[in-house]
Amino acid sequence: MFSRLREDIASIRERDPAARNSWEVLTCYPGLHAVILHRWAKACWHADLKWLGRFISQLGRTLTGIEIHPGATIGRRVFIDHGMGVVIGETAVVGDDSTIYQGVTLGGTSLSKGAKRHPTLGRGVIIGAGAKVLGGFTVGDGAKVGSNAVVTKEVPAGATAVGNPARIVERNPGPVERDQAAARLFAAYGVMPNGDDPLSKALHGLINQVAAQEQQLEVVLAALKGAGIGCRRLEETTHFDAARLNRLVD
Prior knowledge:
Layout: H1 2-15, H2 22-28, H3 30-46, H4 50-64, E1 67-68, E2 73-74, E3 79-80, E4 87-88, E5 93-94, E6 99-100, E7 105-107, E8 120-121, E9 126-127, E10 132-134, E11 138-139, E12 144-145, E13 150-151, E14 160-162, E15 167-170, H5 198-226, H6 242-249
Parallel strand pairs: 1-4, 2-5, 3-6, 4-7, 5-8, 6-9, 7-10, 8-11, 9-12, 10-13, 12-14
Antiparallel strand pairs: 14-15
Helix pairs in contact: 3-4, 5-6
């Protein structure tokens, strides 16, 4: 018990630069308190003390603002940062070394009792603030879900999902190992540097293609004019300003 507590505290200090010492983490971090209470609630749940498990879960919700169903499975070194408004459903699984920020829902979309209704998070998953992960699918190892994303289908290992509905903006299928945690970049709130939205990339490409075609047409018209071939120009429209449109898409 105490070894796991020390492990939890150490993992929080690794991932939160605001954590000054272990005593502060132990006494002032509701995410840690919620995980500890969940372990008690889950022990009661598996001992067929269902009501007591739910009561401890409700007590944890009242004290921390974090609601974890006693049937949920929480791995080792899971960090619920800030935590207010987090909801983790009955059949949810949260893998080792995962990080969950405030306002996250790991919810179910089915009313079938006994079915796998809630998501499974792999190892080292990061779920940004306000994100909703809804359904009985898997978010792969090392995946990241951006803040306020709404995820309703599987996220591959190492990928980053953003938006509503969520779409994949980065794929990095390499495995995430515990001993590589210090070496890899930790993406707070699931935000990756230079993680461009594929929709904006596509729009930039289209704008630049149109600008290139306009330049080529000007060259062709100039060549035809030099050869003495007249071309009737269409009525002038608003000038195509590629730089301005690219700034609007950013």
